[in-house]
Specification:
It contains eight helices and four strands; from the N terminus they run βαβββααααααα. By secondary structure, it is α+β, with helices and mostly antiparallel strands. The protein has two domains: 2-79, Glutaredoxin; 87-188, Glutathione S-transferase Yfyf (Class Pi), Chain A, domain 2 (Up-down Bundle), CATH 1.20.1050. The radius of gyration is 17 Å and the shape is globular.
Length: 206
């Protein structure tokens, strides 16, 4: 399988998941809508965004929640997604939908969009605190979003929390969120994925 990604973008969650699952996934970085071999990325992802997962038979998945769940299900013993048919699996889907629509798309897609009007950006920024309030409530005193272990939902939330930090949001105002973020940054797969992606970002800036 091939995972098409951009450094420190939402595809980081899929990169982390592939490493956590121990899957033989080749990560290929996309730059200016070109693949690492100079190909046209729009021929892989018609929408031009990441992640895209090319399966061994050539089929493409191109939405974060589906890519995350496919990778988790490819390594069921990893526990990265609860089994199908369990309430916990539907809790995972519920969480992934919330993160992808209410946090990723509603907030960050607007804040990071260079073409968005300033009132639109400001409206999105006003959602920072209530969103983190809700996430802190949802975590409670736990260390994971779904069940009692690290899942793809945690890989996704970790990625989004990195964006909050990048935008100078002080997570210490939400102690449980700050502790959660610090704990999962120390996971070997997270450190490895972020190390690779930060190195790619530095290479581009050089």
């Amino acid at each position: 399988m091939e995972l098409f990604a951009s450094p420190m973008a939402c595809s980081l969650a899929s990169h982390i998941t592939a490493l956590e699952a121990g899957l033989p996934v080749k990560v290929r970085f996309v730059e200016n809508k070109k693949t690492d071999d100079g190909g046209d990325y729009y021929k892989i992802s018609a929408k031009g965004y990441v992640p895209a997962l090319r399966l061994d038979d050539g089929q493409i998945l191109n939405e974060g929640p589906s890519v995350l769940q496919y990778l988790a299900d490819a390594a069921p013993n990893s526990g990265l997604a609860p089994a199908w048919g369990t309430v916990e699996r539907y809790q995972l889907i519920d969480t992934l939908n919330y993160l992808s629509t209410e946090v990723h798309k509603r907030i960050f897609a607007n804040v990071f969009n260079p073409n968005a009007a300033e009132p639109t950006k400001e409206a999105a920024r006003k959602l920072f605190e209530p969103t983190l309030d809700y996430l802190a409530q949802r975590l409670g005193s736990g260390e994971y979003l779904v069940g009692g272990k690290f899942t793809v939902a945690d890989a996704y939330l970790l990625t989004l929390l990195n964006w909050f930090v990048f935008l100078k949001v002080d997570l210490k105002k939400w102690p449980t969120i700050a502790a959660y973020h610090a704990k999962h940054l120390a996971r070997p797969a997270v450190a490895q994925a972020m190390g690779v992606e930060m190195a790619e970002r530095k290479r581009r800036a050089a």
